[in-house]
């Protein structure tokens, strides 16, 4: 299966109804401490992997996502993110 282009991935995220769409790359082992966003966000992973946890949930668990996975985070939901050892590229929709 041929890999999609950046433009094709971004068009896919736009088709889900997100107005602001961009591609972001994190370096290996990057970490985002607990934070939240004012609106719903989505992340479509195109390279590498990320692990996410929701520390304010009743029973927080870490879950790892890889290429092709879509991760939605509801507005105001506190989350923490760890990037895999090979880094991670993903399309963000806001």
TrEMBL record:
It comes from the Eukaryota. InterPro entries: RmlC-like_jellyroll (IPR014710), RmlC_Cupin_sf (IPR011051). SUPFAM superfamilies: RmlC-like cupins (SSF51182). PANTHER family: CUPIN TYPE-1 DOMAIN-CONTAINING PROTEIN (PTHR40434:SF1), CUPIN_2 DOMAIN-CONTAINING PROTEIN (PTHR40434). This is Cupin 2 conserved barrel domain-containing protein.
């Amino acid at each position: 299966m041929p890999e999609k282009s950046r433009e094709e991935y971004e068009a896919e995220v736009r088709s889900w109804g997100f107005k602001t769409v961009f591609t972001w790359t994190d370096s290996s082992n990057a970490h985002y401490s607990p934070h939240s966003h004012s609106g719903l966000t989505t992340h479509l992973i195109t390279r590498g992997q990320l692990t996410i946890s929701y520390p304010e949930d009743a029973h927080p668990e870490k879950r790892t996502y890889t290429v092709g996975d879509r991760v939605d985070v509801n507005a105001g939901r506190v989350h923490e993110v760890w990037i895999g050892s090979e880094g991670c590229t993903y399309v963000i929709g806001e």
